Amino acid sequence: MLPFNNGFASPLWHNGPIPGGLYNFPGHNGPASQPKKDYGVQRASQPITTGTSVVGLKFDGGVVIAADNLVSYGSMARFQDVQRVFNINNKTVVGAGGDFADFQCIKRYIDQKIIDDMCYADEYEMKPKSLYNWLTRILYTKRSKFEPLWVDIVVGGVEDGVPFLGHVDLRGRSYQDDVIATGFGKHLALPLLRERTETGKPIGRDEAIALVKKCMEVLFYRDCRASPNFTISVCTKEKAEILGPFKVSQNWELAKSVEGY
Amino acid sequence: MISAENFPEYNVPGVVKHDFHPYESNGGSVVAIAGDDYAVIAADTRLSSGYSIHTRKQNKLFKLSGTTVLGSTGCWCDTLALTSLISARMKMYHYLHQKVMPTNAISQMLSIIMYHKRFFPYYVSNILAGLDADGKGVVYSYDPIGHCELASYRAGGSAGALLQPVLDNQIGLKNQENVAKDPIPKEKAISVIVDTFISAAERDIYTGDGVIINVITKDGIETRNVSLRKD
Amino acid sequence: MSSIGTGYDLSASQFSPDGKVFQVNYAAKAVEKSGTVVGIRGKDCVVLAVEKIITSPLYEENAASRIYTVDKNIGLVLSGLLADGIKLLSIAREEATNYRMQFDRTIPLKILNERLSAYIHAYTLYSAVRPFGAAVILASWDEVNGAQLYKIEPSGSSFGYFGCASGKAKQQAKTELEKLDLKNMSTEEVVKNAGRIIYQVHDELKDKEFKLELSMVGKEVDGLHRIEPSIWYEMAIEAGNAAKKEDDSDNEV
């Protein structure tokens, strides 16, 4: 392109994404910031089939993410054997809460990214921070169009030898921390996890798994949308692995001493 | 036949009804003070919504250049979108002009970027602190749609209304009699800021956990951390 | 050249009186000029091998590769004009992506072959376009369908093979392949034969330098398409060098 052909400076950022424009899913036609021509529409934006809490914890040399295996339909325990933690590759793992269809939709794109990485055959793989930031932009774009993807996603992994743990929600609001919990886990699991991390003492892999298992037990007892079956994903520098399914060993002896109802 | 078509006033084109709320208040406060040869800006580190605290160590200060720092709180997803856009625009300016954008230019750009979303605003409270071309400290404060005002001290965010009168009194020396209006020394400014945050943490549930302070001088940006109450 | 166009070779949209589309034949000629490529389908693997002719020492080792990955377990090798082939590669990847988006599984090679063949064929029908000067070999392996191997010509016609070859020494390579019992061949044997054939068909007098490119997909590599997996690659080169040495000593006698 000739820079001074007509007295106007050529666009600075010619073929790149529009700075400040919204970042769309790949393959979408046209820039996202273009306003829609049609008048207002009304659509139901509420989650339908949902997963409850996801719990995540950093430990010395890795991260662990856990979620139960239930996808609910309102108050019905509809799908009782659905894994909600996934290994994206051997350095990135995710856990999904909120609308499961929305998450599956996002995951299709993530899976394709992984295959694209394989096709390039350059030994480069997507790292957790990249996935985390990508999710942030996708979810923020959708919320800005009033078409939110109703999800709560915990991203974990190990990047350049350093553990990573982050949370993105349906608005694209994101943060990183040593402990993360979504949904009901925010109220029930976070205090348990923070109690341990705030001692400042390093946490080993086995202790982290035990701690997260304890959280899943507490959540099962008190969260009406939780199931006793859960899965754990552990990611260290060496590999990412899925553990489980585990089952909360239930003890309802206490119920016998409850009286007066 | 009774339907919406018979009552055009009930079926206005362009009316959008949504049960989804794109905004969320994630709390946080920012305080900045400008001196003769320095600027200090501080923000707490609590990120919350409602009664739950997402994280206790969220930095809300964004270094835009060697002499300019932006403090941004409010709807955190908007803060993230806005600040990443600003840093992209900072780079573009750098490549085009072969120099770092000066503080006054950043203040103008920030205003324009925010006003571009006048009818779907970034729901954020911004305070920009830095040094001007003469090395003098400056503070700019903004409303969510891009109104910009130059000040010498400002408090913003969830405890902004709580803190501003304290600054008026302690830094602006308002309603004080028989005091010399001497320039505020840097360390005095920092200690006032720390005190305001300690007070804010007592009264505002969205402010607490810790404060990150950036002290901007001609020698660079120094970062300090202070703990606040965590309840 | 067996025939020249005599005016009927200017467009892909016109037949000659004896029923040829000359532009397509010329495209096939472009393929015949390129380095030899072979695809060999064994009992539970497919191996792709290329005689990559190095025209100048100034190129980087991995410059102008001819073997690519289309999807997890699908490999693609190109012969002919590289730039034309790369376009076909991107079309193949797009097809694989679209299929996965719709059906949440890897595209069956049969379908990919049909789609890509149709695309290549479309470029033999119109006056405004030029046919692709590239032939494509597709390879895959999975638990259900086992090993699969297809070759698509510039004309858009395609067939499934046990062994196929394209490029300069296509005939010679095919002769070698026909001697083998491919249906029952172990992965190791397939790899060794692939290396051997490429080294054997290489004509040192015409083209001095070449690099063996090799990829495989099959049971032994976790069902993934792997380009130059170290142990197997070395095995192929070893077999190639051994064959070359034998040939050389035969000549001396």
Please characterize this protein's 3D structure:
The complex is a heterotrimer of chains A (261), B (231) and C (253). Chain A has helices at residues 100-120, 128-144, 185-197, 205-222, 253-256; strands spanning 49-51, 54-59, 62-68, 71-73, 76-79, 85-89, 92-99, 151-159, 162-168, 174-176, 179-181, 229-236, 240-247. By secondary structure, chain A is an alpha+beta fold. Chain A is globular. The model of chain A is unreliable at 1-8 (pLDDT under 50). Chain B has 231 residues and is α+β, with helices and mostly antiparallel strands. Chain B contains 4 helices and 12 strands. Chain B has a 5-stranded antiparallel sheet with strand order 10-1-2-11-12. Chain B has a 5-stranded antiparallel sheet with strand order 5-6-7-8-9, with helices on one face. The longest helix of chain B is centred in the middle third of the chain and has 22 residues, at 76-97. Chain B starts with 28 loop residues before the first strand and ends with a strand. Chain C has helices at residues 22-33, 82-103, 109-122, 170-178, 187-201, 230-252, and strands spanning 37-41, 45-53, 67-71, 74-80, 134-142, 146-152, 158-160, 163-166, 210-218, 225-227. In chain C, the strands form 2 sheets. Chain C has a 5-stranded antiparallel sheet with strand order 8-1-2-9-10, with helices on one face. Chain C is globular, with a radius of gyration of 18 Å. Classes of the chains: A alpha+beta (261), B alpha+beta (231), C alpha+beta (253). Chains in contact: A-B, A-C. Chains A and B meet through helix 2, strand 10 and helix 3 of A and strand 4 and helix 1 of B.
